[in-house]
Amino acid sequence: MKALLFERAPARFAAARITAAVRGSGTGATHGPLRLAEVHPPELPGDEWIRVRPTLAGICGSDLATVDGASSRYFEELVSFPFVPGHEVVGTVTEPPAGARSANEAGGSGARSANGAAVTAGSTLAAGDRVVIEPVIGCVPRGIDPPCSACATGHTGSCQHVAFGHLAPGLQIGYCCDTGGGWSTAGLVAHVTQIHLVPPALSDEDAVMVEPTACAVHGALAGAIEPQHQVAVVGAGTLGLAVVAAVRQLSPPSRLLVGAKYPHQQAWAAELGADQVVAADQLDRAVRRSTRSLRSARHDTAGADVVVDCVGTAQSLARSLALVRPRGRVVLLGMPGRVSLDLAGLWHREIALVGAYAYGVEAVRGAVARRTFDLAFEVVAAARLGRLVSARYPLDRYSEALAHAGSAGRRGAVKVVFDLCARSPLPAPGSRPTPPPRTAVRPGHSPASQRKGPSR
Q1: The domain 213-368+436-450: what is its CATH number?
Q2: Would the pTM count as exceeding 0.85?
Q3: What 8-state DSSP symbol labels residue 182?
């Protein structure tokens, strides 16, 4: 069986960085530490673990940073080599757990029924069940009892023990040598608390979007958005578009503005619920007009109440800090690395800069806390986010797939995935329908009045 294996090879890591810098994101795989290898399926770590055969596995920005040799050295002690990448996974159960326990009995999020509720006591997973993986490896999968304070309250993304327990270090499935990952026909192993059953109404394309949407839900809710707020989203790749859908469904503000670089991203942002969509370099002007702000010292005197940065570069962070109002909030959702940034404005204007990693539990405007993945399933279904899957590649064309993902925006695509079943020929870029051009891409235009439903 085949898998893409990422090994500890500093020289090849450096070569990947040089290649990607010259040829573009995603091209580092041609000279980097990633290779297609024959592998054995990973061993089951315990009775509450299951085997999953991936059907579709997404390629995300953190994957590209790893392949391109651009990931931060912060993560060196939080992964274990060699690992099989791939944490955005929909697949089928091939070996259920021995004596499976319910979510409540297992002490975690647990397997999910098709309606989003926890599997009841005595219920078991069956071979052939279609599932989505919640990849963060917290205390319960690691056999740590009692769990850390974060895991005990459901905030598994903040687990204090990702390098401890009876598993090798690893933030998530896809970065741990003991679990395997989604970029493999050999399958992966996951604890029962990491499993969510996929409702029959969701396609595989919808299901593979659940994990990135969970990240978007967590980031959107980290903004503490109120109905009277004006919100700006910087970046409209997969993550930014999922944020638009999550904000529109879970915490709609008075105005949602999006800066998108490419025309198809602008059209998708409008389709998914943005009130105003502009070219990326026009977002500053759009926010100034919307908030009636003046320009001083390279920032807006007023600005958006909340800015969600879905890019994570020094340039996007500088822009986000300039867009937000004094005492506003910037949510850093795009994965950053080492950046050089002038923080005088953050200090002077008392801006809150909030990181948003992974998922756990969320309270939506004071409601009872719910699992992030439960909310993500709802957002994906309501917005039909499987439409963002633009191309599927077989595993043996990984160099082409990664290069396509790295240049997705320029090539008119959004989400690129591996098809581990090779069920159909490789689709051409843009083979899935793109929404028709919307006048919302013009500065100052608001499509909100065109949507049905009560006005806000």
Answers
A1: 3.40.50.720
A2: yes
A3: S
